[in-house]
Amino acid sequence: MASEAYELLALLMRYVFVLIGALVLLRAFRWMRRDAKNYRREMRALPDAGLVGQIVDLRNGKSQPLPREGDMGSSHECDIFIKGAGVLRHHARFAFEEGKGVLITPSRHGKTFLAGAELRAPGYALHGTQLQLGEAALRVRLFAGLKVPQPMAYQPDAPLTDAPLPYDTQEEDDASFFGDSFYPGPDIPAPFEFPDQPVTADDSWQQAVSTPQKDYDGHYTDDGQMTWQYAYSMEELYQAQAALNQPPPPIDSEPENDEALPYQSPVARRRRRERR
Amino acid sequence: MKEKEKKKRSRRINPATAMLSAIMTFFFLGFLMLAVKDGSWQSFLLAIVVPVLIFVGTAGIPKLFPADKLLLSLTNFLCALGVLTLYRLSPSRGLSQAVNYGVGVGAMLLCILLVRCIRHWKALTVLMMGGSLLLLALPLIIGAEKNGAKSWINLGPVSMQPSEMVKLALMLSVSYLLSRRKIVLSILFTGACLLLLMVQKDLGTALLYYGVALILIFVATGSKMLLGAGLLGGAGAAVIGYQMFAHVKKRVAIWIDPWQDASGAGYQIVQSLIAIVNGGLWGVGLGLGNASVIPEYYNDFIFSVILHEFGIVFGLIVLCMYVFIIIRGVMIARRSRTVFHALLATACASLIALQTFVIIGGNIKLIPLTGVTLPFISYGGTSMVSSLCVIGLLQGVASVNEAGVKEDRSLAMQGGNMP
Q: Which residues have a Cβ under 8 Å from the Cβ of A75 and sit 6 or more positions away?
């Protein structure tokens, strides 16, 4: 092609290239905006996205969402903020591992107990496992549907030791039609009415029959009320309902069973003694 | 009315398809123009092959590998722009860059798999840290000096810059260490890498390492004290570097006044500025420029070539594309489920941001010129592969995030914490 003609073409094409470039940019911008909008919508529909359960502070009953991994301690930077005697700023690290549970890696300097035993090396917490950081007693609660080993049966008054259970759970398991020791069975009516519950009693029975292991993985709703189809036991269910009618204890109050804790920091112990 | 709305909706083009078709058209026209100018069959062939490859790369890869399509589209555009610009000035370099691009795409896929498949990074981090220090020490023993820095090693016909590969290892290692709150170890490792780079006199790469590590430490700890200490340390190192190295003093002097030695030491930057000014807002036109008079036009000054031929307006569009890639990286970091993935995505985004700022700033005389490449566009196999590996790491994190959202969805369906 003659150089003059090419020059003319090249001069004209400068604008075309800028136009196409601007078009690509505009499309990219719209794509990004639409993607962000879709993501926000999806996150609204999945309020528990990125979480695997809750950590319940047994001193005041307050729960905090449990992310997949992070730190717990008394620093406000921590994902799980726990205040209390003997709790370090970064007391322990936790990470959820599929098929295993929540791996708790304790700090070398603090006192950490998992299910009553002092934790020196990383250990796994399952649904219902009691965790103690310094003097703060916590309970790990994991969402239903997570691929983790089945938890042990919950015992409200169990000591923090490996003592044998007060009854033979195997016998109870064998006797139960559904394989769940605390499952009341379809013939037993619901103990009380739950008008505000999203799942009706009948639906829950149906659900439980189709997926009998589901009611093992219990949890509380946001307002602290336990959904009855997820309760571990009837006893726990009654306790949860009774707790609804009682005002929660103040946050900074002394735990009633602090003497039963396996570890108490020397400073806190001295203070308590002085107070008495 | 409803039918009309439905018809309108059906006519509305998917932004992904529209963007891909615009990119393909751009490169079809670009190579066609060069073919018309040269009359060579090679250019005609490229006018067909490059858009087809872009289509396969952008639409095909996400079907086989979980990848972020937007990130892929923007990256492909910039890589193909590099090939087009280089092919226009030096066809052999253009073809060589196309091969580098192909190898880089393979490396990118490997990085996606790496991030997706590896769950336990501890052993790999230890290995990477040791390997990085060894690789950085290698040019000091068997290296060759190039542009004042002894950072290249020649392996027969192939020469490579180990610091480009160590960049990836540094990002992965520091992200892992910081995610495990091993702050001191991460600072020590970065410091050792920086020391080796200072000995090699590769200050441009050292600046990138320092910047990325500082951003990561601040993001991971949120400590303003560490940030302040890092900035002070960086300023101190810059002063020491200025006093110790003659070529640093020379570059700063050129940056302050390149016209005092316009035909000698300042020739490169002066020619670059002249090329940018000649191009003006709309450029001189593809194939009509003479930007090859700029020394290192294919490497350090490729952005000046783009401004010369396509104009400042198009240069701003290219800059916006980098900004979009960085924003996308930050979005991926914010959506991450684990600290390690969030830090890794932050490291990738900050590396691209810093590298782009340092080289474009050097080209337009905003900051002193340092010898780093413009990601995805500059000529060079190691640079192209490492840049695409960074995108691969980002893509890997994005795919892990996507898998996390899927898991959350299934969890919600199975009960989860839903009332």
A: A81, A89, A90
What count of CB pairs under 8 Å joins A to B? 146
Chain B residues lying within 8 Å of A96, measured CB to CB:
none
CA of A76 vs chain B CAs: smallest distance (Å): 11
Q: Are strands A80-81 and A69-73 parallel, antiparallel or unpaired?
A: parallel
What is the maximum span of chain B, computed from C-alpha positions, in angstroms? 76
Are the C-beta atoms of A178 and A215 separated by less than 8 Å?
no
Rounded to the nearest integer, the mean pLDDT of chain A is: 71
- B228 Cβ under 8 Å from any chain A Cβ: no
In this predicted complex, what is the ipTM? 0.88
Please, what sign has the CA dihedral across residues B172, B178, B180, B183?
positive
Characterise B365 by phi-psi region: left (phi > 0), alpha (psi -120 to 50), beta (else). left
Rounded CA-CA distance B376/B105 in Å is 11
% helix, strand, coil for chain B, step of 5: 80, 5, 20
Q: Do A93 and B181 touch (CB under 8 A)?
A: yes
Identify the CA nearest to B250 among candidates B264, B265, B235, B270. B265
Q: Is A90 on the interface with B (CB under 8 A)?
A: yes
Whether chain A has a CB inside 8 Å of the CB on B156: the answer is no
The DSSP annotation for B143-183 comes to EEEETTEEEEEEETTEEE-HHHHHHHHHHHHHHHHHHTT-H
Nearest to B22 among A9, A24, A219 (CB): A24
Distance CA A262, CA B272 (A): 73
**CA distance between the termini of chain A:** 102
Q: How many helices (H) and strands (E) does chain B have?
A: 17, 3
Cβ pair A23:B180 closer than 8 A:
no
Residues from chain B that touch A15, judged by Cβ atoms under 8 A, are 282
Q: Choose, out of A8, A20, A42, A68, the residue to mutate when testing the contact with B (most B CBs < 10 Å).
A: A20
Ranges in chain B, pLDDT < 70: 1-12, 147-148, 414-419
Q: What is the DSSP letter of B14?
A: P
pLDDT tens for A152-201 read 544 444 444 454 444 444 444 444 444 443 444 444 444 444 444 444 44
Predicted pLDDT of residue A167: 44
Q: How far apart, in whole angstroms, are the C-alpha atoms of residue B376 and residue B220? A: 28
Closest CA–CA distance from residue B127 to any residue of chain A (Å): 23
